[in-house]
């Protein structure tokens, strides 16, 4: 039935067969690994929303019983966060956030897919995404979220996305501003700034990328140490200041620094 969806193109039949397959796979690790490709082909290609939702919901059981069985398919799991169906995206977000917060899977670079859901057109999905990051920010004294921010930012800036997922400027800024609310410690700000400066140094010939990096930097809170980093690494971004967006972001950094640290004459 599942191997011939065109011949057996009936939603209830396909859903029942998929549920049976999942329960069968849960009987042993060998069965799980043997039929994994079929399951993920269904997840990606089934024309029935209910089938894709059902598989995503049952991912909780698979990861609980066989946490390493689907390691090779993690991109497909996270890929469901881009599904055309609101219900599939919602089921995927619930499953993935649950697995991460219960420490059943480690957040990796693909977690940027959850960041995209902050601006999802479906209100419940957007709310769940913001709640996920808020909860993650409470873990390990804020370090759990901070550790993955560089990867998230790297995947959001220009050049890292396929054409279907290109962010407009407004959405990009909304995501960045939301995530940076959770960077409050001075050592975290300094560490993130150094990473961004290094990426500036290696970002050649891509004005949009320069602007994105500069915008992220403009949303950090600066102290004496971070301003010194900015000054010491001036050569990393000096040639990019000819771009209006980059120049404006650095102007914002300096103006905010004057307001916050203006009473210290040695910084002027």
Automatic annotation (TrEMBL):
GO terms for biological process: cell division; meiotic chromosome condensation; mitotic chromosome condensation. Its main location: nucleus. GO terms for cellular component: condensed chromosome, centromeric region; condensin complex; nucleus. Keywords: Cell cycle, Cell division, DNA condensation, Mitosis, Nucleus. It is found in: Nucleus. The keyword Cell cycle applies. This is Condensin complex subunit 1 C-terminal domain-containing protein. It comes from Rotaria sordida.
